[in-house]
Amino acid sequence: MTDAQGNRLLSGPVHTTKIPVRWGDFDRFGHINNASYIEIAQEARAVFAMEEFVERGHAMPAAFVRSMKIDYLSAIMPDTMEVMVETQVVRIGRTSFTTVQQLKDRHGSLACVVECVQITVDLKTGKPRPIEDFERKVLASVSTPEAALGSGENEENEDGED
């Protein structure tokens, strides 16, 4: 779903942060290279977790990336010193949640959209575990209304196990 400006986020709260770019993020063609978009999105998800969980007095949940879809829409050029990243939770399941992140250059132009499915994991066993109630509440605080309403009970094999 996209609006006239290419916005892929839905109605509801959004977490926003700015991630500084590094010299090594640029390739020989003078724009941020493809792998750096993924690193910037990952760094923004870490800031999201720190600000939304840790700063509210909760432990940061262990969440592993299960899948990622990336749409590269335009190049971020060297005149951008920090990338604006908007993160929204668009789906909350039983053991996983999905975020959509929009990466924008210094002019506010949408450069990349990253959709990421993350699985909450028990670090002792390495296996998926249900999202706890407090985690669900925190995720819902920056989610679309539809994601916040989901109970996760209708998920089908989201954790990759039978």
Automatic annotation (TrEMBL):
The keyword S-adenosyl-L-methionine is annotated on this UniProt entry: no
Source taxon at top rank: Bacteria
MF terms in GO: fatty acyl-CoA hydrolase activity
Biased amino acid composition, Acidic residues: 153-162
SUPFAM superfamilies associated with the record: Thioesterase/thiol ester dehydrase-isomerase
InterPro entries attached to this UniProt entry: 4-hydroxybenzoyl-CoA_TE (IPR050563), HotDog_dom_sf (IPR029069)
The keyword Protein transport appears for this protein: no
Region (Disordered): 142-162
Keywords, comma-separated and alphabetical: Hydrolase
Pfam families registered for this protein in UniProt: 4HBT_2
Family: Belongs to the 4-hydroxybenzoyl-CoA thioesterase family.
Protein name: Acyl-CoA thioesterase
Organism, scientific name: Corynebacterium hindlerae
Lineage: Bacteria, Bacillati, Actinomycetota, Actinomycetes, Mycobacteriales
